[in-house]
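Forum > Structural Biology > Help requests

Title: Can anyone predict the 3D structure of Apolipoprotein B?

Hi all, first post here. I have the sequence for Apolipoprotein B but no way to get a structure on my laptop. I'd be grateful if someone could post the structure tokens.
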Amino acid sequence: EQLQELLSEYVLDTLIYIQTVRDFCDKQQKWSLQRETELDNMRDIKNRADQNKAKAFGEYLWSGITQVTADSKYQELEKELGAVLKDTLEGLEKLDHFLDAVEKLTVTSLFVFTGRSFLPQGEIITAARMASPLLIHFKRNAETFFLPSINNLDALAFQLDKYIRITEQICEK
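Reply #1:
Sure, ran it for you. Structure tokens for Apolipoprotein B below:
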């Protein structure tokens, strides 16, 4: 009786993971579009920071203006980047639930799901196993990596783009 109860919990947990994966994959295009918008915003901030740097240097050479103007513009851009990254981190939190479900499905026993009524679940478990090598790309703490720093903006944009592409690959599988 106790074994049957544990098996029922195991099946129920697995079905919840499967639903989590399905729900995210159904919304993945919208999720990716939101991240693409954030990526565009990051690139725009980077371009403006580069322009401001060049402009401030030119003004400094010609008129002796202090670094204060450049620093205040730089701080404004970092503040804007912080707002963009806040949205990015919220999106990555949603992604974490999906990735956690995929990871748990990769270690799920197919033998429990061999009956006809469980055939689609078995296919999802198999697909999760095929996608599992891609999970390694997400093994970092997003909150500590995605900090608002203009100096680190190229790395942030590269990593977010990589997350978008790999998430698409996982959902395709």
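The two ends are 37 Å apart (CA to CA). Residues 2-63 form the longest helix (62 residues).
Shout if anything looks off.
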